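Q: What would this chain look like folded?
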Amino acid sequence: MKQKAERNINGVVKPSRDLLDGTLGFRIWFMLALHDTKQRYRRSILGPFWFVLNNLLFISILGILYSQLFGEDIRTYVPYLSAGFITWQLIAATLIEGSTAMVMADNLIKQVNLPMSSHAYRVAARNLVILVHNAPLFIFFPLVMGVSLGVELLLLPISTLILFINSSWVCIVFGLLGARFRDVQPIMQNIVTISFFFTPILWKADLLAERAVYVHLNPFVHFIELFRMPLLGQWPSDLSLIIVSAITVIGTFLAWLSLTLYRNQVAFWI
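A: My prediction, written as C-alpha cells:
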C-alpha cells in the first residue's frame, strides 16, 4: 500500500523519487550509454580508440611545443598537460551535451516510462566511457616522462566517481533548463570555450605570479586537480577537496529540487 501511495494515477513515480529511481535503474541508462558509444563509432575499425589516438598525438605535439614556449621541463609539463586536457574533455562534453540531455531523449520521454534522471545519467555515463578509454594515457605519459607514481593513484577511482556524480547533476539541472530554453546550449558552448583559456590546462598557475591566487576561484581547476595531482605523484590540496565536496553536495540537492519541481513539465517543453 505504501508503494502504491507513492505513485500517481498514471503509475509514474513521484517527482521527488525520480533521482533515486534513476540511480537504481543503472542497468538501463548504462546500456543506453554503451549503445550511444557504439553507434558513434559504428563501421570504424578502431572505434573509440580513434579518440585515444587523437589525444596521444595532440598531447605529444603540444607538450613539446608549449614546454619550449613556457620554458617548462618537458618531463613534468607533458603529464601536467595530459591529465588536465583529458579531464577537461569530459567536463566540456558534460556541459555541452548535458544541456540537450532531455531534448535529445524526446522520443523516449514521450513513449517510455523512465525516471527523467535516467536520460541525464545516460549522457554522463557516455562521457565516462570515453574517459575510461583514455585512462591508459593518464598512466602512459607520466611513466614515459619518469614521474614517480605512488599510492596517490588510489585516489583516481574515487575522483572518477566524484566526477560522474557531478556530471550527472549538471546534466539534470542544465538538461531541464535546456529543455525549457533552447538558448542554453549555445550559451554553454561559449562558456566552455572561454573557460578553457581561463583554466590552467595549457599553462600553469604560477605564471600569474601574485595573481595565481585568483585561479582558485575557477571551480573547474579543483575538479581537474583531483586527477592531475595523483598523476604527478602528489595529493590534491585541502582547498580543492573542500570545494569539490561542497559543489557535489549542493549540485546534487539542486538536481533533486529541479526534478521535484519540473519533472512533469519536461514532456510539454520538448
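Residues 70 and 103 are 43 Å apart (CA to CA).
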